């Protein structure tokens, strides 16, 4: 089925990009910080999401392996669990950038290694617990429906719109309201009061903070665009392309293509990553043996 290939390609590309970004988080000195720590876990999530969707669309949909198609609710459950985790991690990243600008003296304490682990653990633990419980309690079965998992359609969800309401609540309260407010506040501070809020920092740290803030702001804009397309894109597309294709382009394809744009933002707008890629540090350095010439 052609939809399998159309989704597998962005999943595979996103997987490769996430692996590259993850390596950069460990290798780039500037990314060995609290912000780099959060970016690292975001890449782990991207790798999991791309592997989950990519493997299903490749082997299940494209190669028509019945075992995977008949158990598609497992892949659907993993995907729906990852959504609030990704949103939560980005929320913490927005807090990280905001506090780095507003409270530089307390920033290192608030985002010490101990507290970082607590924040990330909560981002993972809460969705991993409540999503399966919610699924079991309401007898939800997120089975694959020809062109993707679309939770607003009764044909692809057996528990009505309860989970859709839950996801939209998390997205609107946690992301649209709080995260966008933090990102917008950070932008205002950087544009209007940059010299004042960063005057105590060295030029190198000042440049790094602006660099990280730029990455988060653009990633937030891309995620906001995704939510708009996912929520309203179905209504925007003309009916002439067919009902199934409208579902496919605005859900399965666009959701998995988002990984490319999000990770691409890091490569393009994070100066440290751009420099690292340009310098050819992508592959491990080869050890060169020096042979003394025979005189």
Automatic annotation (TrEMBL):
<feature type="domain" description="7TM GPCR serpentine receptor class x (Srx)">
    <location>
        <begin position="8"/>
        <end position="270"/>
    </location>
</feature>
<feature type="transmembrane region" description="Helical">
    <location>
        <begin position="173"/>
        <end position="193"/>
    </location>
</feature>
<feature type="transmembrane region" description="Helical">
    <location>
        <begin position="6"/>
        <end position="22"/>
    </location>
</feature>
<keyword id="KW-0812">Transmembrane</keyword>
<dbReference type="Pfam" id="PF10328">
    <property type="entry name" value="7TM_GPCR_Srx"/>
</dbReference>
<feature type="transmembrane region" description="Helical">
    <location>
        <begin position="216"/>
        <end position="236"/>
    </location>
</feature>
<feature type="transmembrane region" description="Helical">
    <location>
        <begin position="248"/>
        <end position="269"/>
    </location>
</feature>
<feature type="transmembrane region" description="Helical">
    <location>
        <begin position="118"/>
        <end position="138"/>
    </location>
</feature>
<protein>
    <recommendedName>
        <fullName>7TM GPCR serpentine receptor class x (Srx) domain-containing protein</fullName>
    </recommendedName>
</protein>
<feature type="transmembrane region" description="Helical">
    <location>
        <begin position="83"/>
        <end position="106"/>
    </location>
</feature>
<dbReference type="InterPro" id="IPR019430">
    <property type="entry name" value="7TM_GPCR_serpentine_rcpt_Srx"/>
</dbReference>
<keyword id="KW-1133">Transmembrane helix</keyword>
<feature type="transmembrane region" description="Helical">
    <location>
        <begin position="43"/>
        <end position="63"/>
    </location>
</feature>
<keyword id="KW-0472">Membrane</keyword>
